[in-house]
Amino acid sequence: MENDRKMMMLCLLLAAISSRVFTGEWKATVAKNLDALVTSCAVIPCSFTHAQDELPHSRLRGIWHRSTDRDQCVYHDDKTKILENFRGRTKLLGNLGQGSCTLEMTEIRDHDNGPYCFRIELVTTGTETSKIDKFSFVEDCVNFKMITEPPKPTLIPPKTAIQGHPYTITCLVRHTCPSHIPQLTWSRGTAEEILEVHREIHQGTWEAQSTLTFIPEEKDDHTDITCTAGFFGGRKSTEKLTLYVKRTENYNHIIIPAVVGIGTAVIFAGLCIFMVKKYKNRIAELQNQDGTMWNRLSRLSRRMKWQG
């Protein structure tokens, strides 16, 4: 009895495993919450897999629909099946054959909040597909958080700008539409002074980054630098900072007067020494002259005495 029970459990386990392998199992990874800027665009990252190693790519059909009704399609390869207010606004960016079901939605409207779900089908000709060839990922749907004002860019400057030294400012803004990257522009700078980078922060959220490097001059002190983010659909936002330029230490105002002062003192001292020497020489000459005259008078006086 016990052996029969074990055999039955083993058969059930094998049946479950076989069912999983032969019927196949669909799995999807979808970003469930995304910001969506009204009038702009949003991209829903989506990927899917199947338990079978290979699927007939030519028969794959990807559909996006409202979670409440799979017949309310926001994307379908047959455009007549798309809800009228979504026609021309949705596009499948991913390649279904490579397991990508990423969807782009443009001209976002304030009522496009969702949720939206992905559905995969294996299409056949002549007969209907079986249930295992159709699957809606109703537990992996995306909701939009509607944003009416464009995100403001963030400026990351170094602490101090020094005259004559390279100065770098970074401007960045986050978004959810990598198919139409926001354009970051500066109020100054040339193409050679600007470096742009675009990267994914986490699933569904991206960051556009622009770095401006220039050499500030004295005239740049107390001037404004502005970064503008231009979003798909025409919306813009700006951020600015006031530049304070620290002057390079310059000791010319000390050195030059000191040199001039020392030079003047040296010249004056030289003149004084020259004048003193000249004066001493003149005194010596006069003294010599006086000595000679006195000697003559003394000799003349002695002669007169002898004659008397």
Automatic annotation (TrEMBL):
Q: Which organism is it from?
A: Scomber scombrus
Q: Which part of the chain is the Ig-like domain?
A: 151-242
Matching InterPro entries, A to Z?
A: Ig-like_dom, Ig-like_dom_sf, Ig-like_fold, Immunoglobulin_dom
* Signal peptide from the UniProt entry: 1-23
Q: What is this protein called?
A: Myelin-associated glycoprotein-like isoform X1
Q: Where are the transmembrane segments?
A: 254-276
Keywords of this entry: Immunoglobulin domain, Membrane, Signal, Transmembrane, Transmembrane helix
